[in-house]
Predict the structure.
Amino acid sequence: MEPGQESGQDSAEQCSPTEHGPWELRQVLLARTNELHALLEDRWRAQDRDHKRKDLLDKAKEELRSARRVLSHAHKRRKAASHIAVGQVHVDTAHNLLLRLSEPKEIVAMMPGVLASVREVLPADDPRRAVVERIAKSPSKITEAERESILDAVSVARQVRIEKTLRIRSFVNIVRWVSGGLALGAVLVAILGWFFDNTVPLCFSPDRVSGADTYQVVCPTRSEPEARAEDVDASLAGTTSPADYLTIEFVGLVAAGIAAAATIRRIGGTAEPYNVPFSLALLKLPMGALTAVLGLLLMRGGFVPGLTALDSSAQIISWAVIFGYAQQIFTRLVDTQAQNVLAAASGSGAATASRPAPKPRPQPD
């Protein structure tokens, strides 16, 4: 097969609709494979066709074929983000081989893009970045040794970018596993509350006075204005409803959803294949359901002095809203860590490190 020919299988893979997930990112990578293939063909036609360069050309095309196979491959489980990340690895490798196929004078036109890519991920004190910046000041005189330095810097930058993407993947997986565990816990609490609603009731007796014949019992879905049992626990257990825990968890979940919407507004979107904002929203929902229940249990146990005399179901529901929204106190650290991970992946950390420190302002006499 001639270097300029592509098999029919590759064309079918490129147009395959079997990939699930971020369609735009997949199309960007597929378009990039076409662009790199055209550039490789151009390099091959413009240079002497020696055996060494043909091997490099074949290796680069094999990387492009691997990228197309990954992007068009389907699993029983959805792994679209993993497909995109692995496809990006193959595309970056093909781009490095394109640089190696290029003459020093041809790399001159690529230097702005190479410099931007290196600056995006490598810190300002990295010696490889310093070499590329020095070469970029006079790119018309690139030597063979300087080309090798450029290739080394680009390879390291690619590896750092992959590591940052994998760090995002690890963070998202941890958040989703924790979210699944909390969701399972919330479901179990709702089931136990439904079948054993009088074991730990979410009820209050605000006006109970020692020696009184009757007193009021208030639960999330029912109330008894004239309870007569001498044992207050028996009165609470007799007034409960199987829907008490389910109602409180639903109210807490809705309040947590409102908090999640406000948090996502601050984080914004991301161009990474792994959806960090969506994972954070999933974490907040079961957390809000559980904090609503736990908060009311703490109030019933007198943990918060002065806040135990809830005298209506509406007040109980209102406090469930407050406790559900209050899950933000516990998930704020996770939101901050998500912002740090996304900032590092976008290269803003390296860009910040490259800025000179601000000069101190002179103090007035």
Remarks:
- The CA atoms of residues 231 and 237 lie 10 Å apart.
- The radius of gyration is 31 Å.
